[in-house]
């Protein structure tokens, strides 16, 4: 048997045979190496996430700028009323119009109002600490002082002097400052609810809407999408307190939209958010200062906001009234109006809403007592009771 070649250790091609195997690393060095790898991986992942988020943010801003409509003449609302609100407070006047062709002309003929009108008037108040959002509905038939035009319905300010007069009227009525104005056509509700995949509303009362092919809305939790959502927010003839209930229904749908938008399946779906923007922006117009950078800034400040932080209520009003011209209007409640003005100045709408709740409960209790004290009822007590 011939002589065998001496054993040679395995080595990489072109490498050098080591004289001796290196000592195994200590457990401490191994842990440090693993930790370094993990940190590096996290850093790379974070960098990728930042690049992706910046790219998405850029798309979001581009979509907003490409689709937004700017209101001419309202490039800047920073006027001499700014001192009325604390630094950092934001007030947005939200106006909704409901253009419906012949029925709109019929309304104008009855009310004597010409030009455009606003069927939805809401003040969106965001305090300095961004702890919540307060949405206050204002009745469109509220009888107020319209600057330079005397007394009139609050929604007549839009037709009498455009959005500038509408802003002045609300600012004087509430003794506050409006930072931004947003208008929206009701038709936008249809596409918006569709883009969100439908919204869910807890309907407190059953009713039908529309005379041709009426839609029925049962009491309880219902899903609204497209034309069904549009009919829901439009209807008022089915209710004895028509405009009051209509405002309540508008608040219900608006809250449902906010809840749906803030839900996990929307916020974690970038394409759905872009679809929502592209669906609603064509139906919206806004002042020039409400640009993409400003909106993103607000969104970052309120990124921890939840649907429970959105508070909605209707501005308290007084009695129904018939003017000398025969128009049916609603008078303001002067006492509560003054309290509302102070609450806005001191950023205390939480306290104002609590006061409203207690006040309404007391008024309801008094009304129940008066009904119980009607003819034939017994209100006495003690030993004289039968």
Quick overview:
The protein is α+β, with helices and mostly antiparallel strands and 386 residues long.
Sheet with most strands: 6 strands, mixed
Number of helices: 11
Uncertain parts: 6-18, 46-52, 101-115, 377-386
- How many structurally independent domains? 2
Measured on Cα atoms, how large is the radius of gyration? 31 Å
Q: Give the overall shape, derived from the CA principal axes.
A: globular
CATH topology-level name of the largest domain: Nucleotidyltransferase, domain 5
The succession of helices and strands, N to C, reads HEHEEEEHEHEEEEHHHHEHEEEHH
Give the helix/strand class: alpha+beta
What is the mean pLDDT?
80
| Second CATH tier, the architecture of the largest domain | 2-Layer Sandwich
Helix content: 40-55%
**CA(first)-CA(last) distance:** 134 Å
- What's the level 1 CATH class of the largest domain? Alpha Beta
Sheet with most strands: strand arrangement: 11-6-1-2-3-12
- Percent strand: 15-25%
**Count of extended strands:** 14
Write the layout of secondary structure elements.
Blueprint: H1 27-67, E1 90-97, H2 102-111, E2 120-126, E3 133-138, E4 143-146, E5 150-153, H3 156-174, E6 180-185, H4 187-195, E7 199-203, E8 207-209, E9 215-217, E10 220-224, H5 227-234, H6 242-261, H7 264-267, H8 270-280, E11 284-286, H9 292-301, E12 310-314, E13 317-322, E14 328-332, H10 334-345, H11 349-372
Parallel strand pairs: 1-6, 3-12
Antiparallel strand pairs: 1-2, 2-3, 4-5, 6-11, 7-10, 8-9, 13-14
């Amino acid at each position: 048997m011939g002589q065998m070649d001496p054993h040679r250790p395995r080595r990489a091609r072109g490498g050098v045979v080591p004289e001796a195997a290196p000592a195994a690393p200590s457990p401490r060095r191994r842990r440090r190496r693993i930790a370094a790898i993990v940190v590096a991986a996290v850093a790379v992942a974070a960098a990728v996430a930042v690049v992706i988020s910046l790219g998405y943010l850029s798309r979001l801003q581009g979509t907003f700028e490409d689709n937004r409509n700017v209101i001419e003449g309202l490039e800047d609302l920073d006027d001499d009323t700014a001192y009325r609100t604390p630094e950092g407070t934001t007030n947005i006047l939200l106006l909704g119009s409901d253009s419906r062709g012949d029925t709109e002309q019929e309304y104008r003929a009855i009310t004597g109002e010409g030009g455009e009108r606003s069927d939805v008037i809401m003040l969106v108040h965001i305090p300095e600490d961004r702890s919540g959002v307060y949405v206050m509905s204002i009745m469109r038939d509220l009888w107020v002082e319209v600057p330079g035009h005397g007394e009139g319905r609050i929604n007549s300010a839009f037709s009498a002097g455009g959005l500038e007069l509408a802003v002045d009227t609300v600012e004087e009525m509430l003794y506050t400052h409006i930072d931004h104005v947003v208008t929206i056509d009701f038709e936008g509700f249809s596409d918006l609810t569709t883009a969100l995949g439908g919204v869910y509303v807890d309907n407190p009362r059953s009713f039908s809407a529309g005379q041709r092919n009426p839609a029925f809305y049962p009491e309880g939790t219902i899903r609204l999408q497209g034309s069904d959502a549009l009919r829901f927010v439009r209807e008022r003839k089915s209710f004895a307190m028509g405009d009051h209930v209509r405002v309540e229904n508008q608040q219900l749908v608006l809250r449902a939209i906010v809840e749906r938008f803030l839900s996990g399946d929307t916020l974690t779906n970038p394409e759905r958010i872009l679809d929502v923007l592209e669906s609603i922006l064509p139906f919206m117009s806004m002042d020039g200062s409400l640009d993409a950078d400003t909106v993103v800034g607000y969104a970052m400040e309120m990124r921890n906001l939840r649907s429970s932080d959105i508070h909605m209520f209707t501005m308290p009003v007084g009695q129904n009234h018939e003017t000398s011209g025969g128009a049916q209007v609603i008078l303001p409640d002067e006492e509560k109006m003054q309290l509302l003005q102070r609450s806005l100045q001191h950023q205390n709408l939480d306290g104002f809403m609590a006061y409203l709740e207690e006040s309404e409960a007391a008024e309801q209790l008094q009304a129940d007592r008066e009904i119980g004290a009607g003819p034939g009822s017994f209100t006495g007590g003690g030993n004289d009771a039968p």
